Design the sequence.
């Protein structure tokens, strides 16, 4: 029952509080690309890979009382924080689910900005292209972000680290 | 004359119940419609299992694809001579609109979940692989198939082009809302599309709507909201979807356990392995799928034959509202009781969530999550729709999710009236 929801709850149990919906989307996508078996499907949107299924599941977890969402008003937008509740922890006690250890990877990603994670996830989205074409494609679809050479290098290094290479 | 610019001697028109007529003048578009990969869409229903709830909902992805093409044709007709619009993009966006759903398979949603496939990957494969569609697009120019693929995949550099078929107010949604409303026969889903098309304006990287058209857009958002809850999330359709998924799971499981099917499931073998080639994928349409379901009704495996009989003859599961947080202990007890009653709970006791369905709501794009609908104000400023419209604000902020528990009531009722297990199961379900 609710296997995909349960995987997300395991994620929140490992992550502690996650600040920002965009960050959440990108972290789950990057983990998925690092072989963590999340089943939410992602499509490329204006801000990179995005999963409507993930958004809906998170809403459901909040409505069920398994996840606490806090909304904060920022200058031009709202920001959201997510934390697993006690009811969520109790639910997880009933479930045995094999998921790879992801605590360290999550901690690394939480330290990074959502702009950087957007770059990393966009690179991963175009992984199917020949290696030499990936950077060019990323910079063309993200031309407004003006990513620097240093950021590109840092993103590739980060991907290798996430994958333990 | 270059193939790109070639026009038919006479305009072709398709009668269409939603847009009255679909007009085709470009040779390229006409050739694409005639390609076998596009004609295949006639054999894929637009709404999957909804026809078991709304008997009119037999329309196909073919109808819808032509409809999206027609809406885009009308939008760009209005864009001619406007700033930010490059007429050279005309053929590219028309092709992308027509072909955007090319990779959908039979009962897409369930098939994709069970066999871990993605119709968007197959759209790309059809556009870029060894197909008639690819050959037609290549005649325009060598790199043209890749451009069409990029627009559909939303990775094309020109976001304005992408937004015409993939944004929160795009031709795709405007067609399916109206078409699905028409064929299901519901009275929701209608809005003043002509008005919206008149007030759409091309900007550098998206389509926006003049503020004077806000009320028409409100109507569109309301239609979308109502269609989700009244049609797309209909609990009876979800029951059919649950059974369909379980059929596919069961057939796959039997195959993995070397079960001897009476008729070798040739068309499914590569799907069971989760690696169909493009050719195998294109060969499995809904007619073939339903043929297998009819054959499997006579299989010796009681679960597979029962599920197929249910699907073919519309003997669906019943359902109750279910809250996994408050009813976890009950669910665990039901799981054990179903086993005791000889009903495999993996197939006959199913929790279904609204997030298991593929439709999306309007989102105002908090934290750059998704690009929202923008209104173009008289001073040329852009404002997000829900900040200007109280109606949209009230439904886009409102969260409504839904979980249901599905089970075969008829099988429970068949148990002996003296069975304590039966009594307890019904007690929990209908408390």
Sequence:
């Amino acid at each position: 029952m609710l296997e995909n929801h349960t995987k997300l709850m395991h994620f929140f149990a490992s992550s502690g509080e996650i600040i920002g919906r965009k960050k959440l989307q990108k972290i789950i996508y990057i983990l998925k690309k690092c072989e963590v078996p999340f089943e939410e499907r992602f499509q490329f949107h204006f801000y990179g890979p995005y999963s409507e299924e993930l958004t809906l599941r998170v809403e459901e977890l909040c409505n069920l009382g398994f996840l606490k969402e806090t909304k904060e008003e920022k200058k031009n937008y709202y920001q959201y924080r997510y934390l697993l509740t006690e009811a969520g922890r109790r639910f997880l006690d009933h479930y045995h689910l094999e998921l790879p250890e992801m605590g360290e990877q999550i901690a690394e990603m939480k330290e990074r900005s959502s702009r950087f994670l957007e770059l990393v996830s966009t690179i991963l989205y175009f992984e199917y292209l020949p290696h030499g074409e990936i950077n060019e494609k990323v910079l063309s679809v993200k031309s407004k972000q003006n990513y620097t050479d240093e950021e590109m290098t840092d993103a590739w290094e980060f991907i290798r680290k996430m994958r333990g290479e | 004359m270059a193939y790109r610019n070639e026009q038919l001697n006479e305009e072709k028109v398709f009668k269409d119940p939603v847009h009255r007529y679909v007009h085709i003048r470009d040779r390229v578009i006409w050739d694409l419609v005639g390609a076998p990969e596009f004609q295949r869409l006639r054999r894929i229903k637009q709404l999957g299992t909804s026809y078991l709830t709304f008997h009119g909902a037999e329309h196909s992805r073919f109808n819808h694809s032509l409809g999206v093409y027609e809406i885009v044709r009308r939008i760009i007709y209005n864009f001619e001579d406007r700033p930010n619009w490059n007429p050279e993009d005309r053929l590219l966006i028309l092709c992308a609109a027509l072909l955007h759903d090319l990779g959908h398979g039979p009962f897409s949603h369930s098939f994709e979940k069970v066999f871990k496939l993605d119709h968007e990957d197959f759209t790309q494969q059809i556009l870029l692989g060894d197909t008639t569609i690819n050959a037609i697009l290549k005649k325009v120019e060598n790199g043209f198939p890749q451009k069409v693929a990029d627009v559909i995949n939303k990775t094309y550099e020109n976001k304005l082009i992408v937004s015409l078929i993939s944004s929160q107010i795009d031709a795709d949604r405007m067609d399916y809302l109206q078409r699905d409303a028409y064929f299901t026969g519901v009275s929701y889903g209608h809005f003043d599309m002509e008005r919206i098309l008149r007030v759409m304006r091309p900007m550098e990287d998206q389509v926006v709507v003049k503020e004077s058209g806000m009320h028409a857009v409100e109507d569109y958002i309301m239609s979308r909201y109502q269609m989700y809850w009244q049609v797309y999330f209909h609990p009876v359709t979800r029951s059919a979807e649950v059974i369909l998924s379980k059929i596919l799971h069961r057939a796959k499981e039997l195959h993995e356990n070397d079960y001897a099917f009476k008729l070798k499931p040739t068309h499914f073998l590569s799907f069971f392995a989760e690696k169909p080639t493009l050719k195998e994928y294109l060969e499995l349409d809904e007619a073939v799928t339903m043929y297998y379901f009819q054959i499997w009704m006579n299989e010796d495996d009681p679960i597979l034959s029962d599920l197929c009989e249910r699907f073919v003859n519309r003997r669906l599961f019943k359902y109750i509202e279910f809250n996994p947080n408050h009813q976890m202990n009950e669910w665990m007890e039901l799981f054990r009781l179903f086993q005791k009653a000889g009903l495999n709970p993996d197939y006959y006791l199913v929790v279904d969530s609204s997030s298991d369905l593929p439709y999306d709501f309007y989102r105002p794009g908090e934290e750059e999550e998704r690009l929202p609908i923008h209104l173009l104000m008289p001073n040329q400023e852009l404002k997000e729709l829900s900040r200007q419209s109280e109606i949209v604000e009230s439904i886009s902020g409102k969260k409504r999710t839904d979980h249901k528990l599905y089970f075969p009531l008829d099988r429970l009722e068949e148990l002996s009236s003296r069975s304590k297990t039966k009594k307890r199961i019904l007690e929990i379900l209908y408390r």
